[in-house]
């Protein structure tokens, strides 16, 4: 196997299960539009693969075991009086029932897309060997906009992409629609993703030209039956670049007119176009501040153009400015919080999960809970820019669960980030995609799990990482507990391992220049202070860490008082954030009784040991999973082991040059001296954004 089939492998079930399932899936009944056809087709495909036959297709129930697909209005379903109303447009219900005295399973939704989601859930029951007797399942998404953000350039280069080129083969579109687009849509629909932003946040206005919109339209047509809307990134200066205007000032009537006309043109081609995603006045992108306008003024102008078409505007809060000497942690809050309540109803402010930038571990972003009158959506990074690209095994479920379950204390105790997301007048979650042209889609077998988990968390931000890992492992690798057991354990420990060998105890952003792959804690010579790792760790002879308490930058003051009190107190802050918020002496005693210096070394070693434990756990799975995928994972784990050692050694060599302390007994010295690590160059690492 190559991994191309993702979690939709539909491998034959064991004989003892086959007969049980087959009795309950004798026939498929479905009538409706294209999405219903897709749903019925997927069901047949799954049954063919897993049970080995094509079920009978009839419009009436002819015997026991029919699976009846339909909406609330379908003639077979309406008389059943199912409680569908509260499930919304995308929810579904799966229920064992009787029609005309025959035993059936009904998969119903208010709209056809709900039925498709229900079919994927039904197939998952078989994929994970659950009983199909006496089913009574209902489910509905808790967030409305569940989108992938592709950082894909028009030349197919993927910024921070480690899985090959962009899967959008623009050159051949619209003439040729690669079958991969359909498989992409299937995979996304199977986990409830209902939107895709096709283009990079560092946007190119060209995609808004008519000849490009024709290509976008072709993709939208492939995705539509799967309930997936397309969105584009809008380059704020497009009225100048494409429209020949002298300004992109959002308050200039000509500019507003240009956008309105452009949006109308898009909707003529794509009537269900989702809307725009905008990165403005961030890392060199144009935006309203260029004209001394606020983010709200910029966003609202675009939102007004989209509103008549029910389009959504996603406006990113990822801002920090070279001219601003303030702590980077604070800048987004400082700029956006005062704008609470000033955005139009169809604007979602898109906030990264952490305060700075997709690090292996960060405290939650202080904007969550702080803008109660503004819908906020959370952005996470599925592609592992800061967690070892596609080669390191790191399951991100625990990271996202940690962020979503963080308590903002706004307005009071129990106001988790997940609840803040759910409470908005508009709701959503975005994941920066890790998808590319590689045969396995994500650059590694295990990174598929992160795509999968993103869909599950966007559907239900209250979800838990471990059951998601279990589902994914069973569908992707097989149901043998001797396989899923070790795989789930590896996954659940993997992210903490990365934190330990890269940035333990609340450190962050210590990557070497440009590529963000290897360690570079010594780097101090880049133009902007906050581009340098030394800005983040602030190690000196006395100690290490960033004082963000009241004696420092007071970033803690941006959180609710309860949170600020905890983060701001060295004794109460969760140790995992110690150095994020505090500058701590090297001989400070940590909770385990070590000195901080010793604790740091212990953690680095623990991270490396955890990778070795993953290698040991993977070894006995040879022969229990297919050889090709097994070997790929084995090789990647070996790379990860080497590079975890590189991170550990380079970090210790550098910090020791500052702390001037000996390593604790039993912990090996770095293999080389500091200059050796400093000399390592990786100028051709993928994904640099060039
Ligand atoms: C940073 C990435 C950069 C992105 C930026 C963003 O290094 O490539 O453009 O995030 O989110 O982490 O806009």
From TrEMBL:
Query: What sort of enzyme, by top EC class, is this?
Result: hydrolase
InterPro entries the UniProt entry points to: A-glucoronidase_C_sf (IPR037054), GH (IPR017853), Glyco_hydro_67_aGlcAse (IPR011395), Glyco_hydro_67_aGlcAse_N (IPR005154), Glyco_hydro_67_C (IPR011099), Glyco_hydro_67_cat (IPR011100), Hex-like_dom2 (IPR029018)
> Which GO biological process entries does UniProt record here?
xylan catabolic process
Q: Where is the Glycosyl hydrolase family 67 catalytic domain?
A: 126-441
- Annotated GO CC locations: extracellular region
Q: Which GO molecular function entries does the Swiss-Prot or TrEMBL record give?
A: alpha-glucuronidase activity; xylan alpha-1,2-glucuronosidase activity
- Positions annotated as active site in the UniProt record: 283, 357, 385
Q: Which UniProt keywords apply?
A: Carbohydrate metabolism, Glycosidase, Hydrolase, Polysaccharide degradation, Signal, Xylan degradation
Q: Per the UniProt record, which EC number(s) apply here?
A: 3.2.1.131
> Which reaction(s) does its UniProt entry say it catalyses?
Hydrolysis of (1->2)-alpha-D-(4-O-methyl)glucuronosyl links in the main chain of hardwood xylans
Q: Which Gene3D superfamilies match?
A: Alpha-glucuronidase, C-terminal domain, Chitobiase/beta-hexosaminidase domain 2-like, Glycosidases
List, for all copies, the residue spans of the domain called Alpha glucuronidase N-terminal.
6-122
| Glycosyl hydrolase family 67 C-terminal domain location | 443-666
The UniProt family comment states:
Belongs to the glycosyl hydrolase 67 family.
Subunit description = Homodimer.
Q: From the Swiss-Prot or TrEMBL record, give the protein name.
A: Xylan alpha-1,2-glucuronidase
The protein's organism comes out as Sphingomonas psychrotolerans
């Amino acid at each position: 196997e190559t991994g191309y089939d993702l979690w939709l492998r539909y491998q034959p079930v064991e004989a003892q299960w086959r007969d049980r399932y087959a009795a309950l899936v004798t026939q498929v009944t479905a009538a409706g539009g294209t999405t219903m056809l897709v749903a019925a087709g997927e069901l047949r495909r799954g049954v063919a693969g897993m049970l080995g036959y094509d079920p009978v297709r009839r419009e009436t129930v002819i015997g026991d075991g029919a699976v009846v697909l339909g909406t609330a209005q379908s003639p077979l379903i309406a008389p059943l009086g199912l409680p569908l109303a509260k499930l919304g447009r995308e929810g579904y219900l799966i229920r064992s029932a009787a029609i005309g005295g025959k035993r059936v399973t009904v998969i119903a939704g208010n709209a056809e897309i709900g039925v498709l989601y229900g079919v994927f859930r039904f197939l998952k029951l078989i994929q994970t060997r659950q009983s199909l007797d006496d089913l009574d399942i209902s489910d509905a998404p808790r967030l409305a906009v569940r989108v992938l953000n592709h950082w894909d350039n028009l030349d197919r280069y993927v910024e921070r992409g480690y899985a090959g080129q962009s899967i959008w083969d623009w050159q051949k579109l619209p003439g040729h629609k690669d079958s991969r687009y359909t498989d992409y849509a299937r995979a996304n629909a199977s986990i409830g993703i209902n939107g895709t932003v096709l283009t990079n946040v560092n946007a190119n206005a060209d995609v808004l030209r008519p000849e490009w919109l024709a290509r976008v339209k072709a993709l939208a047509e492939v995705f539509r039956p799967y309930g997936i809307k397309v969105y584009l990134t809008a380059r704020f200066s497009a009225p100048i670049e494409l429209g020949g205007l002298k300004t992109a000032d959002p308050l200039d009537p000509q500019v507003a007119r240009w956008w309105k006309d452009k949006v109308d043109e898009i909707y003529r081609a794509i009537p269900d176009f989702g809307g725009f995603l905008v990165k403005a006045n961030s890392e060199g992108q144009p935006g309203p501040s260029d004209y001394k306008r606020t983010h709200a003024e910029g966003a609202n102008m675009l939102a007004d153009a989209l509103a008549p078409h029910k389009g959504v505007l996603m406006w990113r809060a990822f801002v920090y400015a070279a001219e601003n000497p303030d702590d980077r942690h604070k800048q987004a809050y400082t700029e956006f919080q005062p704008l609470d309540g000033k955005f139009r109803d169809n604007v979602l402010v898109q906030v990264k999960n952490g305060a700075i930038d997709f690090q292996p571990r960060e405290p939650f972003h202080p904007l969550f809970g702080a803008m109660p009158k503004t819908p906020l959506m959370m952005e996470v990074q599925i592609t592992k820019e800061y967690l070892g690209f596609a080669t390191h095994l790191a399951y991100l479920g625990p990271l996202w669960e940690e962020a979503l379950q963080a308590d903002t204390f706004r307005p009071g105790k129990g106001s988790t980030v997940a609840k803040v997301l759910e409470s908005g007048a508009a709701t959503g979650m975005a994941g920066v995609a890790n998808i590319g042209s590689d045969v396995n889609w994500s650059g590694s077998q295990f990174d598929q799990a992160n795509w999968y988990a993103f869909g599950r968390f966007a559907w239900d931000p209250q979800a838990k990482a471990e059951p998601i890992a279990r589902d994914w492992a069973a569908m992707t690798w097989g149901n043998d507990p001797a396989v899923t057991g070790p795989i789930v354990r590896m996954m659940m420990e993997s992210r903490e391992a990365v934190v330990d060998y890269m940035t333990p105890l609340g450190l962050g952003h210590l990557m070497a220049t440009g590529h963000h792959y290897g360690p570079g804690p010594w780097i101090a010579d880049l133009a902007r202070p906050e581009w340098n790792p030394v800005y983040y760790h602030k190690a000196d002879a006395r100690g290490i860490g960033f004082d963000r308490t009241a004696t420092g930058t007071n970033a803690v003051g941006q959180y609710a008082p309860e949170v600020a009190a905890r983060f701001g107190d060295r004794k109460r802050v969760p140790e995992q954030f110690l150095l994020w918020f505090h500058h701590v002496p090297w001989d400070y005693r940590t909770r385990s009784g070590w000195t901080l210096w010793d604790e740091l070394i212990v953690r680095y070693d623990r991270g490396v040991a955890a990778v070795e434990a993953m290698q040991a756990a993977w070894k006995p799975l040879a022969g229990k999973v297919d050889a090709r995928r097994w070997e790929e994972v084995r090789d990647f784990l070996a790379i990860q082991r080497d590079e975890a050692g590189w991170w550990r050694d380079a970090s210790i060599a550098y910090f020791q040059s500052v702390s001037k302390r000996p390593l604790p007994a039993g912990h090996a010295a770095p293999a080389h001296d500091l200059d050796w690590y400093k000399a390592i160059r990786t100028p051709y690492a993928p994904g640099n954004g060039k």
